[in-house]
From TrEMBL:
It comes from Jiangella mangrovi. This is DUF559 domain-containing protein.
């Protein structure tokens, strides 16, 4: 709020600077004792407002987003921090904004029950996961991303959060694995770990065995695997190739996390098409978790290219 409403004393100047640095939001414990009466007068006159039990805002209008963030942390028990999608967005994650404010607070503490604030509890909130200097106090990006994925409304959104965070270079897969290992039990733990592996790339995340099972379950002709194609810049391997039907398949583990890698992938895809093949692409997630859809797509593609449904190739 405006500095003229704060007494022009040494402590008044300190309070003014504090209000300016915290978007006009204060906790009772931050008010110098000699200025408590001043704060009470402002509240009584309704020039200031109270949020929760012990948090004051130095105006009487609607709170802006920055003020809501400050109030959510200050109204929560000691040791609490902005978390999940809220903290991740503050640290740069794009594409997953939410009007709710997510806060993690220590287990066994009291819920502040502020409108628009979603509270989660955790026993793991030390400096390894909570930044000691950022304001408002918030979790570090690796922990925020893991939590945001665990709290997402759907599995596909959880995967998208993890992949986007790596793509946007907010975190590395190693940092996410470390945060997940210290997180303790959480929703979607296996899915998050699997998605981190996908983000790291490599066929640790490309399930060749699962793909082979799909081919056999749908009684499809066996493809050649890891077929070598010669390109001007070197050799390239197709994950699966039905040369007789002009059909090739690639299973993407990385989700095209890098623009340069994406360009290279497109160049390879173009070469495959120039060679006369049709290229199908599936994510490793689809191979693992949507095998029926993958199998039906493969079967339709092969039939469209002349497979009679019985011929062994």
């Amino acid at each position: 709020m405006t500095a003229e409403l704060v007494p022009a004393t040494c402590d008044g100047g300190m309070l003014t600077r504090l209000l300016e640095s915290q978007a006009g939001v204060l906790h009772r414990s931050e008010v110098p004792p000699e200025l408590i009466r001043h704060v009470r007068r402002e509240l009584h006159a309704r020039r200031w407002q109270r949020v929760g039990r012990d948090v004051f805002v130095s105006h009487n209008g609607a709170l802006g987003y920055g003020q809501r963030l400050q109030a959510a942390v200050k109204a929560s028990p000691r040791g609490s921090a902005l978390a999940g999608p809220t903290a991740a967005e503050l640290d740069g994650l794009q594409g997953f904004s939410t009007s709710d404010i997510f806060v993690t607070q220590p287990c066994g503490t009291r819920h502040p029950r502020l409108p628009g604030v979603v509270v989660h509890y955790s026993r793991f909130l030390d400096e390894a996961d909570v930044h000691p200097l950022r304001t408002p106090r918030r979790c570090r990006p690796p922990r925020s991303i893991v939590d945001a994925a665990a709290w997402a409304s759907r599995d596909d959104r959880a995967r998208a959060i993890v992949l986007a965070a790596v793509q946007q270079r907010l975190v590395t897969p190693d940092q996410l694995h470390d945060a997940l290992s210290r997180r303790g039990p959480c929703l979607r733990h296996a899915l998050i770990a699997e998605t981190i592996d996908d983000a790291a790339g490599g066929i640790a995340s490309v399930p060749e065995r699962e793909f082979a099972l799909i081919v056999r379950a749908f009684h499809l002709p066996e493809p050649a695997r890891q077929r070598i194609l010669e390109r001007p810049d070197g050799r390239y391997y197709l994950d699966a190739d039905w040369a007789e039907f002009g059909l090739a398949v690639e299973v993407d583990g990385r989700g095209h996390l890098d623009v340069i890698a994406w360009d290279s992938d497109l160049d390879r895809a173009n070469d495959i098409v120039i060679d006369g093949r049709t290229l199908l692409r599936f994510t490793s997630y689809a191979v693992r978790h949507r095998p029926d859809s993958v199998g039906e797509t493969l079967m339709r593609a092969l039939i469209a290219r002349g497979w009679d449904g019985h011929t062994a190739v």
